[in-house]
Queue: 2 jobs
Job 1
Amino acid sequence: MQKQHSLSKNQQIILDLIVKSSEPLKAYSILFNVQKKGINAPLQVYRALDKLVEIGKIHKIESRNAFIACQNSSCQISKATAFSICESCENVSEISNSKLSKYLANFADEAGMKYNKYNLEFFGLCKKCK
Amino acid sequence: MQKQHSLSKNQQIILDLIVKSSEPLKAYSILFNVQKKGINAPLQVYRALDKLVEIGKIHKIESRNAFIACQNSSCQISKATAFSICESCENVSEISNSKLSKYLANFADEAGMKYNKYNLEFFGLCKKCK
DNA sequence: TAACAGTATGTAATAATATAACATTTATGA
DNA sequence: TCATAAATGTTATATTATTACATACTGTTA
């Protein structure tokens, strides 16, 4: 059994906010929302975000500069992420598909690179918007 | 046969710079490098970059906020991109693999989303660095 | 418990990335 | 040649992220 991270105060505040959000949150939007809880500066937010990404509690959506809670097994470091992004409503959902992840992990191995992680983002229209 | 885009002056200057670069270039680094050619403002750079991305001449490496020339058939709009990024030397190379692209296109279809494009970034150590 | 190491915090300043708004010019095609 | 779309030039500003430095908390172990 892997050691559970006990989160610090700022980390927990920011994780709670992201978990309860229905959409990816941007750093300065997070900052605005946690100012009433005593987090005043961008750096406080970015430090917590960095840590939460590192331990796999949240993911960064690179094409949007925004953060969402991990929707898979929540305790693992995330080296393999895939998302589906609606270009109309900006809904983002995490794809959890073992065939896909195996395929990609295997692909990276064959390519001769020592692979640490990957990130895949699909863009299109979600079921509602198409 | 698809109509060839004839690039404007600024677009051509910036594409030339990116093509001859051995590494991904960032917008403000591009700006610095083209100031001697009369491009003075960030917006001039971003507009050219937007257009070049749109017509598939270059790609944005989202995790790095940097741009590289397309290394595949250079005239096509790019809806399906995959890159291998070395976390040590920051070398980036475009992956061109028809099995991979077919697999991913097919995956997106099955997921029930109307898919427009995807972007995949692998991170690890390249052959030199591992 | 004291000392230490590692992690987290607080604060100010600033760097780096990107866009809005508006006026003007150039290219393309009917 | 007229209309339209695309590109340009310029200023200002918005958004995203980091550097630097001082301080405090947490867990381990001597």
Job 2
Amino acid sequence: MGRLRLSGLKQERIDKLTTLREKGIDPYPARVSRTHTIAQALNLPLNEAGVVAGRVMAIRSFGKTCFMNIKDGSGKIQLHFRGDNIGEGYGLLSAIDIGDFISAKGKLFNTKTGEKTLAVEEFSFISKSLSPLPEKWHGLSDIEKRYRQRYLDLISNPRVKEIFEIRTKVISGIRRFLDGKGFLEVETTTLLPVASGAAATPFSTYYQALGRNFYLRIALELYLKRLIIGGWDKVYEIGKVFRNEGISLKHNPEFTLLESYEAYADYQDVAGMVEEMIPSVCEHALGTTKIDYGGSVIDLSPPWRRLTLKEAIHNKCGIDIGEYPDADSLRRVIMSKLSPSDWQIWEEEVSWGKLTDRLLSTYVEPCLIQPTFILDYPVDVSPLAKRKREDPKLTERFEVFIGGMEIANAFSELNDPLDQRERFSQALHDEEEIPDEDFMEALEYGMPPAGGLGIGIDRLVMLFTNQTSIREVILFPQLREKD
RNA sequence: GGGGCGCUAGCUCAACGGGUAGAGCAGCUGACUCUUAAUCAGCCGGUUGGGGGUUCGAGUCCUCUGCGCCUCACCA
């Protein structure tokens, strides 16, 4: 038996496999003579023969007759085997286990209970399964096992399969929408000498041939802007970005980001587009623009509520951040409204912008269930956004919140090369972001005014599928290696 | 990284303040030619995540450790 410890169940299946081979039957043939998918076969006229193939999901055997359910990617069908129909082959049925793939030739008929069923005349083994599938009734519910062995999750839990199909439709819906608006989809680079464009810790790696460290991208932003500089007016990319940070219900270290840039547009134009795009994508994926999330019905149809950051904080916290224009005074008034036990996260020495952002995410964000634009963010937390003309402490930036989650982030892109240089050096000082010298050089050649957008696809899918954990919308979420 | 909870048969779950580890499904044997969580009878199946300890005796108590979930911090 060697080092491989076989469970009794597996050994029994190997024995069956050996028996098949001894009878000259190949359990893993190279060709399958399927004529119809199961979905097609179910539409065949009665008495017309067809060959279907699929995985055996259930077996109900009665001496000289036997029912099985098999399933392929299109659906499932019941098979009926009768001793007097398939003769000697009937004895081979006992070698079929749940989980095996078989093909079956036969004609449709209706059972007593009216179920369309294939009366099998011939059948073949097409792939023998050695490990038993999760139990038919309770299925697979162990979360760790579901993530580690997602294939079993997909077999056992139809809703999981559906969620990932919705995910695919969300992405195709986004492409359809943006392509329809004349955007060009591009692919920029993932492996970078400098990871910038967001405030996040990158993953680093080593490039042998060049003999130096490289980083995985943390955003798409600066490369897409290079393309705007290069003369394309509307570009977008859907791609993985990587952030070397903790895992949580809403964070996976690699996630899928959509970013789009439109020249000659500003953040108000982008807001209009987002308000049109999200319902359009939802309609494409789910056939509706009203969704159920965490027990609330969310109506995605426009127009969405618009609030400035200042108004939003004033409404929820009773603090007018305009009256406390520096970090110290703002911190004092926040703490004066809290009991000392809640002071801890506010005591840290952070900027005014950071404090307002924290007020937003702690007290406002969880309440923003219906789609809401929060506009005009502080300049020191928005190093790539253009300043507001009437208040240079603020930027032309908005975020979209739906279901208490941040879904989108957008701004009028900063195209003043000297201001950009200044902001990068401030960000570097705050350990916020790494300046990208090559990008700054590009900006000096001149970039048209542009509106940029970023949307976390995973969170959008969470919203559309009513999931509270990001792992439920990522096929293979990050897990520690299991020994 | 800190704190809380969890891990028992292939799967889903039991086992009360320590006292012989059980059930359903799956599997095996037998009966059964329209069942669909088929039914009936019998059987097989375990290093209770792993290591150490306390005890006459540990799934249960202590300790170290692995993995997962929740939560806090950094972030989207």
